[in-house]
Structures are given as structure tokens and as C-alpha cells.
Specification:
four-stranded mixed beta sheet, 1 helix, Immunoglobulin-like, four-stranded antiparallel beta sheet, about 15% helix, about 130 residues, alpha+beta, globular
Length: about 130
């Protein structure tokens, strides 16, 4: 691989995004509090037939997640609860508390016909696209 094959701008942009997410999560926790706010990893992609949103939510129960749509905005919100209160921590890396992410959908997406499922800790929202 030559020097010109490496896209440094893209790599730095991805690193900055990950660092910002890390700092936002840590700051939202507020130092001494276990539960705060966090931003779960989210992917959005589109095919000719649908828009798919996947959100990593390991440890989040079905009843602790809500998916709403208003206009072209899809909102995923909920909470992951900490169950180790009063314990002595040896390592604590996972994020706990409330989360909320908003995704702007393309104009041809129909969120009123969305399907939502939580499989193996991943929330999958499939939104059909309207064909003209």
C-alpha cells in the first residue's frame, strides 16, 4: 500500500467522530453517576425498496425502547439500566442511562409503514420507500 492509497482525511474524521461520542457519553454521565445519557452506535442505509436503521442496544429490554416518527424524522429513544448498584467495581466500560437518536429520512420513505424488531441486541427499523 502506497502513501497515496491511505485516505487520512477520512480516517481522522472517523477518529474524531468516535472520540466525540466517547467524550459526550462520559460527560453526560457526570463523573460520579453511573446512569446518564449515551449515544448508541447507529447505522442507516437505503436500498431501492427501503431505508434500514440499525441501533446497537445490547442489554436493553424490548419495553425500554420506543420508535416514533414525525414528518421525515425517525426518533429512537429508551434506556439501559444499571443492575450493579452497591457493588464494588473492578471494571465499568458500558454506558447506562437514557439514549435518544434522531434520523432524518429521505423524502420517499414512509415511516408510517415501518417494522421494528430487536434481535440479539440490535434494533432494526425497516422503512419502506414509496415508489412513484
Amino acid at each position: 500500500m502506497g502513501v497515496n492509497d491511505w485516505d487520512g482525511t477520512r480516517a481522522l474524521s472517523l477518529l474524531r467522530e468516535r472520540m466525540n461520542r466517547l467524550f459526550d457519553e462520559r460527560q453526560a454521565r457526570g463523573g460520579s453517576s453511573i446512569e446518564g445519557q449515551f449515544a448508541p452506535a447507529t447505522d442507516v442505509y437505503a436500498t431501492d425498496e427501503q431505508v434500514v436503521v440499525t441501533v446497537e442496544l445490547p442489554g436493553v429490554a424490548d419495553g425500554d425502547v420506543a420508535v416514533d416518527a414525525e414528518g421525515r424524522e425517525l426518533t429512537v429513544r429508551g434506556a439501559r439500566h444499571f443492575s450493579g448498584e452497591g457493588s464494588q467495581y473492578h471494571r465499568l466500560e458500558r454506558s447506562y442511562g437514557e439514549f435518544r437518536c434522531a434520523i432524518e429520512l429521505p423524502a420517499d420513505a414512509d415511516p408510517s409503514r415501518r417494522t421494528v424488531k430487536l434481535e440479539s441486541g440490535v434494533l432494526i427499523v425497516e422503512i419502506p420507500r414509496v415508489t412513484s
